Amino acid sequence: MAHIELINITKRYGDFLAIPQQNLSIADGEFLVLLGPSGCGKTTTMRMIAGLEEITSGELRIGGECVNDKPPKDRDIAMVFQNYGLYPHMTVAENIGYPLKLRGVEKNERARQVEEVCRKVELDKHMHRRPAELSGGQRQRVALARAIIRRPKLFLMDEPLSNLDAKLRVTMRAELKHLHHELGVTTVYVTHDQMEAMTLADRIAVLNHGEIVQLDTPEKIYSEPADMFVADFIGSPSMNLIPGRIINGLFECDGVRVPIPFQTSVSEVVLGIRPEDLTIVSEADAHIRAPLYALELTGESTLATVRIGPTMVCARGPSDFRTEIDAPIGLKARGDRIHLFDAQTRKRLNP
Amino acid sequence: MKQTKLMWLLEQLTLVLVCIIALFPIVWMFLTAFKNGRDAYDLSLIFTPTLDNFFTVFRAPWNLGSMLMNSVIVAVSTVMISVPAAALAAYSFSRFQLRAKKTMFFAVIATQFIPAVVIVLPFFIMFRNIGLLDTTYALIVVNVAIVTPFVIWMIKGFIDAIPLDSEEAAMMDGASRLRVIRDIVLPMAAPGILTSAIFCFILTWNEFLFALILTRREAVTLPVGLVSFRTERGDLWELMSAAGVMITVPIFIMAMLIQKHFTRGMTAGAVK
Known about the structure:
The structure holds 2 protein chains of 2 kinds. Chain A is an alpha+beta fold.
């Protein structure tokens, strides 16, 4: 277990600056998720920590020691790859036992530990098969077992669940969470799936264009997004973002008048409100009045989408809510859940 | 419909014709190997078969045994030196960021463009000066130089096709680069490397020009040995054929064994 520090880390590929400058400190035993869209630099960051990618400048410290020039094998890190990276010519047991073999663990002891880990990830019936004979979920578990058979200083997981089907993903997510609780090893997890990030993380680092735009707990990231990128990226369906102006403490645009409970000097703004913070009300009480564009039943609720000019606004209503398409409906925003962003800088304006 | 059937017939006929043209000399050689001296010039397919020729060639003055030994020594040594070296070079070309990598790779392949006749004389002079003329060492050096670039190119194709993930996983598991090559890359590339090794063996086994120029008595290999059956008494076709059969059969068996891998190896190298 160890404390990880990235100090002014940059990464360049020729003329292309992939990571402009990154500073990040990961506490001992923490589960940190690097979250962002494809190409935002999250995998590059992870590969630099692993030692698979050279650091252009800056310093990487693991447990207080600078490891910039250490090869991957000497960093004592275990990694789970997106495509598992199994050894196709070895059996499941040989795959899992390989890290121990490299460390010179004696054969009987190795077999004992492999069996123990296999039982933990429910692979004990498949120990003598080759990876090609396993399903995706089983292969994923082999990769995981290979990582946890030793107690490394740090776990790195590069979108380990992205190749699994939706149901298995949910199961494995819970497994990972439990495993982290059990082992207590510092973990860095890369994903573009905000749901995975929200459920697994102690803290989330949201990345965009190689920069960390917000680093905080999942609750804070969800309830106080630092800018419009984070607001839009986190949540499903994502936050409604409505451009407009502030006039006398009221946010205004076509068909929308929302009282703003705090002062701001900026007049060109974007109003952010999550679908669950909008309630369907009578037109008289409404902040937003618009004809219904679409109605989607999700099971536990109904998503009602209205159209305001070019902007779609989605609200989460009770599951029994029904009305005709194009019928006018009213929506009311919860005053304490309103987010305001500067239309120019895209930064959060809430005090 | 009628036209496609005609096309089919034409195709089959062409194939049969090509096969006959290609196989006729080989079949004739096999037949001649079992004929006695008089029957060798007879075009009839009916003759009394004999194994005498196969015994005669091993006796003086032909002594095919020592030539066979030379061929085996040269071919096996060439494979043993060339394939490991080529595998490491191919791995480097496939995986490392090297300065002027493309140029270097092209330079390696370009050595194959030089006609053998151009370099055979310099080789002759060089080996004469260092006293290695008419030794199997000289042939091994020359053959290693000839086949290695080709083997590098072939093995690189196979290594390119191995996903990087497994290698990186092994490094994270604690393996050094050499250990990764030994434990992960070589086993995964084994079919390709075996194919390349056999190909390398065949090339060396059949090599004629250098063996002809660089050897005289001691280090003569089988293909050159065949020439000795052209005597002042005329061409001894039945002995030449018997020796020919012995040169061909091992290659034939190997080619059959690797045929499947071989085609795959060629495309793997070509497409990447």
